[in-house]
User: Which sequence fits this backbone?
């Protein structure tokens, strides 16, 4: 399959984020006041779909929303970015949502309610992958149920699979990570996959030598292991306003760049710039820059 013919299926979460600006993140037994509130579209699946679309990729989003106002808003946000929403089901349950606190330093604390995101079925999985061909790319996170079944079905279909195993949950132990072609992890997620608290890129590469590994390190940048070689990109220093969704922006841009045939080092730089721009803006999906903005930006 030619790269320009590749289609991307993002099978993931859709959440309406309720964002509260606070001086400090609330502590146990404490009540605090927020000085600003904003509702924006989020969920790691939706964020990554929008990031890939704004980077120029052709994206189909598969997942679930409720038959509620939030579900309509989430679908509309994807359609506005030219993401195909024909694989999104509307269910008689609440849409997923998140409560996000952001402090004066731009750090966040997040509570996620899965709602419709946790209602994936085997019949839905079969229906989704009947629409895709060998060589197409599946992008996954860990915010929907049936992740093992989704991965096995896509693998049997001959699709390439990229997994961001976040957030870390006990269910991750049942996920056939070895079937994935690409993994996007930080050191804690790498440790979970290696059976330790934290793991280096070298330790992860020893565990998954045939997998492209994208290892993010926050202010220390990101590294990629692929085909026995390691690539590194330092982070770009900016004044952070909100770090929510920065990792999803990075993941979406990196995948879009790789799918269009960009070299790994160049894809790393493009994704790093996109993530840097995103943290200077409030919100998750709304903070994702366009491709033109990323290419024009000079740190």
Assistant:
């Amino acid at each position: 399959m030619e790269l320009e013919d590749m289609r991307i299926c993002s099978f993931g979460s859709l959440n309406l984020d309720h964002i509260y600006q606070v001086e400090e993140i609330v502590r146990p037994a404490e009540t605090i006041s927020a000085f600003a509130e904003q509702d924006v579209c989020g969920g790691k699946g939706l964020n990554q779909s929008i990031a890939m679309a704004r980077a120029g990729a052709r994206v189909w989003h598969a997942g679930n929303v409720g038959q509620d106002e939030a579900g309509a808003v989430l679908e509309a946000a994807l359609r506005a970015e030219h993401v195909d929403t024909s694989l999104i089901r509307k269910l008689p349950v609440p849409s997923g949502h998140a409560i996000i606190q952001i402090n004066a330093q731009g750090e966040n604390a997040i509570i996620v309610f899965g709602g419709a995101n946790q209602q994936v079925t085997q019949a839905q999985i079969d229906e989704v992958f009947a629409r895709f061909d060998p060589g197409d790319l599946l992008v996954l996170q860990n915010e929907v149920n049936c992740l093992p079944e989704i991965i096995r079905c896509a693998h049997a279909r001959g699709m390439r699979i990229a997994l961001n195993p976040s957030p870390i949950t006990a269910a991750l132990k049942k996920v056939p990570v070895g079937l994935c072609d690409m993994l996007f992890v930080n050191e804690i997620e790498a440790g979970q996959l290696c059976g330790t608290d934290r793991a280096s890129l070298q330790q992860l590469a020893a565990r998954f030598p045939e997998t492209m590994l994208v290892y993010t390190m926050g202010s220390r940048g990101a590294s990629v292991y692929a085909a026995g070689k390691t690539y590194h990109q330092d982070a770009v220093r900016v004044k952070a306003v909100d770090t929510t969704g920065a990792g999803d922006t990075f993941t979406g841009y990196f995948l879009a760049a790789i799918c269009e045939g960009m070299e790994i080092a160049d894809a790393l730089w493009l994704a790093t710039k996109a993530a840097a721009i995103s943290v200077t803006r409030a919100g998750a999906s709304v903070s994702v820059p366009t491709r033109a903005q990323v290419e024009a930006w000079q740190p």
Summary: The chain has a mean pLDDT of 93. DSSP finds nine helices and 13 strands in the chain. The longest strand covers residues 59-66. The chain has one domain: 3-13+42-89+118-296.
